[in-house]
Amino acid sequence: MENRIKNYIGKIYIIGMFILYPLIMHDMYFDISNTKLITFYVLSALLILSVFIYAFVLRYKYLEKPKELILLGALSISMLITFMLNGHTSEILTSEAEYGTGLIFLFILILTSLSVLLIETGESAFFYSTAITLGVIAVSLFSTLQFIGLDPLGLLGAVAEDERSLFLGTIGNIGNLGCYAVMVFPLCFYSLAMTSEKYSALTKVLGGCGIFFCSILALISNTDGTILSFAVVVILLGIITLRRNDLAFYFHISLLLIGVAFTLVGLTQLIQDSRPLDIHERLLINPILLCVLICYSAIPLILHIKHRDTIINKISRIICIIALIALCILPIIIFTYTITNQRPDTLIGRVLYFDNHWGTDRGYLWKSAVRIFADSPISQKLFGLGSSGFADAYIDKFYNTSLELGIYSNYDAHNFFLHFLCEYGLVGLGLTMAFLIMRIKRNLINDNLFAKLKAISLIGAMVASMFLAFQNVTLGWLTVLL
Predict the structure, then answer these.
(1) First to last CA, the chain
(2) Cys bridge to 248: 156, 189, 313, 423, which one at CB 3.0-4.6 A?
(3) Cα angle vertex 118, ends 116, 119, to 5°?
(4) How far apart are CA 403 and CA 480, in angstroms?
(5) 408 lies in a domain?
(6) DSSP states of 177-194
(7) O-antigen ligase-related domain spans which residues (predicted)?
């Protein structure tokens, strides 16, 4: 009886966060974050209230994860100290200048995360992955239509012509759309690889469609940060699944679907009204690269039929490990390339040379964030400037200079970790990272495949967040990746 109630609570929240939340929108793109913020508050309130009744009326014991609970409690106290140190203003509570990600939002996020941990949504893995797949298919279809020049609901008409390239689909900003694709990709793999007792063929078809449409979303989001984080989740997925021949078969199917999806996106470039891909994304639709990817993924599938795929699975896993190491040392390569004073005269040089315009002007924003943190007094180094603190400091010290340098007009660090460091200090960021790492570790060492896939999704979201603005749209999904 108690488990049934707990599963019902989890399923309602999952439907809300993976079908309603990504699809709900307003008639103006700039209101999408506010619309989703209200949706998140309603869903979170229902979840928190349900779990409160469940835990205290039925006397449910929930002390299985005391370390996570302690970290969430310590983070809440740290944020209260931040609030007390920075004048207890209403802007710190609501942070309207930063998409409503003030203390109220963060406290609700913490309470919702706690509630999700208590009800263990992972027990409904097939329901979870099915809801994700249905949501991503709908989001991808809508986004693809806009990408090729169609706008069925007229949303783009509410956006200035020179801003339209930054918005896509029902999630709004293209970076947020890419982060969404990265997060749900590993969880769609679960539907493809695992078998439901009732709907085996249907779940596999849905899983394959989810993989296919996630790949389309990742590419048409047209952001380098998305491509990097997408590569990370695919590589990690390969490292984990290629140990088992049955899962390795579905991993190579996923690679094949990625190749087909990228090919389809490449063909859309022949449509006159289709949005052009940036230079780095165009590399991924190179016919030679796509032929290699499709052929390489098809060979293990043929060998699997003849039960001779063990060796190539090991080779694929070694390739994934080497690729992961290469991505991990990429920051060192960028640092070394930059300090040698080489100029970005080539495509590779523009990627490796870190200057003010690196990463669509993120270089300047990141440098500014480091300066803001370094210039803060010790109390604010520990507990931060509070919500909107980064925006206020950036506008005061760096905004005018950024306009002179031709930097895109902005007041967000476009890096979750640097932004959070400035606004909640070393203590806030440290506790947050400790909690996330603990959840990743707990899920990775779990024998359950679904738990491992959630860990990969969370890692992918963290990598994508290194290039994103601090917004409620993507932060809301954190709760369902724990």
Answers:
(1) 25
(2) 313
(3) 70
(4) 39
(5) no
(6) HHHHHHHHHHHHHHHHHS
(7) 302-431
φ and ψ of 471, to 5 deg: -130, 155
Tokens of 326: 């290469």
CB 58 within 8 A of CB 2: yes
Helix axes 245-268, 200-220, angle to 10 degrees: 50
Report residue 61's pLDDT band, with 50, 70 and 90 as the boundaries: low
Does 157 have pLDDT greater than 60? Answer: yes
Distances (CA, A) of 151 to 145, 164, 165, 170, 221: 7, 12, 13, 11, 16
Angle between helices 32-57 and 103-119 (to 10 degrees): 50
What pLDDT score was predicted for residue 267?
94
Candidates 456, 452, 396; CA nearest to 422 is 396
The structure tokens listed for 69 are: 């609970």
pLDDT of residue 436: 94
Q: Does 98 map to a domain?
A: no
Show Cβ contacts of residue 389 under 8 Å, excluding neighbours closer than 6 positions. 86, 380, 422, 423
- Say how many domains are in the chain: 1
Closest to 383 measured CA to CA, from 420, 411, 435, 413: 420
The three-state secondary structure class of 135 is helix
Q: Which amino acid is at 180?
A: Y
pLDDT in tens, 259-317: 999 999 999 998 888 899 988 888 899 999 999 999 988 888 888 776 666 788 888 99
Domain span at 20? 2-61+120-328+446-481
The pLDDT of residue 31 is 64
Whether the per-residue pLDDT at 29 is higher than 70: the answer is no
Beta strands at 167-168 and 172-173: parallel, antiparallel or unpaired: antiparallel
Is 460 a residue whose pLDDT tops 90? yes
Vertex 432: Cα angle to 428 and 435 (nearest 5): 145
Distances in whole angstroms, Cα of residue 51 to Cα of each of 20, 77, 127, 476:
20, 22, 19, 18
DSSP reduced 3-state for 146? helix
- What are the structure tokens assigned to 81, written together? 């100290």
Question: Quick check: pTM over 0.70?
Answer: yes
- Position 230 in a domain: yes
56, with CB counted inside 10 A (0-12, 13-18, 19+), is exposed
Please, are residues 206 and 199 in contact by the beta-carbon 8 Å criterion? no
Cβ distance 125 to 9 under 8 Å? no
The answer to whether the beta carbons of residues 37 and 100 sit under 8 Å apart is: yes
Amino acid at 92: I
Query: Does the residue 357 lie in any domain?
Result: no
Q: Within 10 Å of residue 349's Cβ, how many Cβ atoms? A: 12
